[in-house]
Amino acid sequence: MADQAPTEQVANLHLDEVTGEKVSKSELKKRQKQRERDAKKQEKAAVAPPKAAKKTNAEADEKELTPNQYFEIRSRAITKLIETKDPYPYPHKFNRDYDLNNLVKEYGHLKSGEHDKTKTLHVAGRIYNKRASGSKLIFYDIRGNNGVKAQIMCQAQEVRDGAPVFEKQHDHIRRGDIIGVVGYAGRTAPKTKIEKGEEGELSIFATEIILLSPCLHQLPDEYYGFKDQEQRYRKRYLDLIMNPKTAQTYRTRTRIIKYIRSYLDNAGFEEVETPILNMIAGGATAKPFESHLNDYNMDVFLRIAPELPLKMLIVGEYDKVYEIGRLFRNEGADLTHNPEFTTCEFYEAYADFNDLMHRTEELVSGLVKQLTGSYVTTFTTQHGETYTVNWEAPWRRVEMIPALEEATGEKFPPGDQLHTDETREWLKGVMKKVNVVCPEPQTTSRMLDRLTGEFIEETAVNPTFITEHPKIMSPLAKDHRSKHGLTERFEAFVCKKEIANAYTELNQPFEQRLRFEEQARQKAQGDDEAQMIDETFLNALEYGLPPTAGWGLGIDRLVMFLTNNYSIKEVLLFPFMNPEQKKDKIPAEGAEEPQVHLEGIREY
Q1: Global pTM value
Q2: For a tag site, which of 27, 133, 255, 588 has the least CB within 10 Å?
């Protein structure tokens, strides 16, 4: 029976004479009825009057495209312009001779309907919006001269002699393109505004529009914008195009660096440059990046601090030196840390840490005042908590060991005993008592740092100096002149985060060697961040380093607080990001790739 089943099925099929297929009786009837309906529609269409061809709007149709479809069509169109040079979409030069920053100042007096045709203006910018009112009137909203907005009004009757016809100038221009504009200043006179007693929009009345560089991609929608945080970091160029706040943050950063540089220059400091590649990673307690020099067949380190070479310059008769530059630390990356970051370090001969506390207050308070017009700023954390910060001098001062004694309820060993194994074991008990965890290796230095973070840094919302660190935490700082085992050092904290670190410099070569050896002992205990012994620096000290104070400021961290950004990635133009994961682009089973319908979309 099973062998006869296929034969019976074929016997029940019927021939479709139109297609030549054999189908079931029900399927054949369905096809015949559909053909009857189609025939009746054709008869009606044949006797109906012809419809006027529907005129399509190319740009409106393009809004319905997927990003990939838009890119393909736009790329073909621009490729055609490159081939025909009609017009060439990437001209070599446009003579921009007017700064849009001056438009309101120089032409703001114009009333509705007034123009100044005495001066021809050449401006340029990127199109953020394009609006048409009929076929002979087009408006562009552009941004040029570092983000200044301007309206461009284009009328067919205003096209200057020798310029391409109106349609040819505008048909190939899209949102996102960079254009050059030749025209004159004036103010529009819309009836709706005049009836309300309002002035029209100050604009550039174009006599010619020139495409300078087309945008091949769709810009994000004006309403929804470009908000995806990870994509903003990965495509900072698009972030800057779409989000004026981002651009403002980086311009503020530039102003901050300029102020710091100006302050130090005016105070008699000289700016210098020190090596990025070093044979020894010194000058800070941090884990370095390693590299290899092929010609010398030797391993090297990216600098973790410029401190040691800058102090060598003080030995070499520089009185005041500073450097603003990048440092590299192979440590964790989080909201406030990036593997590479920017600092300012300076060294001042014949000064001590007390002088530098005053200089820090003067520099940073003056910066905030000039930047904001006030000493008070606000900062919002990732958890939505808002701090009101008063940067005005004098700043609060907190001595580290007495503050830890008060917080833990324990009397700490004398400062000259803090480096012993007995103190390390005692500190482990204190950590357990106060429920503070310190990951291995549990060195005395790391445990003291954890306790300070838990009990002192958490109180430092307004600018605060944490002072007089133990020697075991400060291998390059000079002994405190009256407190054994402690150093003349301070760290400046704001909003519970460190922004600056400074101390009276250790200039005694014998003591410096002992400090380096203690760091080597901590490295042997497993502390990857402990410093190495730098014989070149020790040799420089043997020639004599005058009494000196040194200072370092984290510029990224300061910019975060002054621009109200809790993530360091918001203040770095190109933060380090993990490689973007490639997603499987094969459509799901049964899914179809959207088709590009070219009908009604002009290929200009």
Answers
A1: 0.82
A2: 588
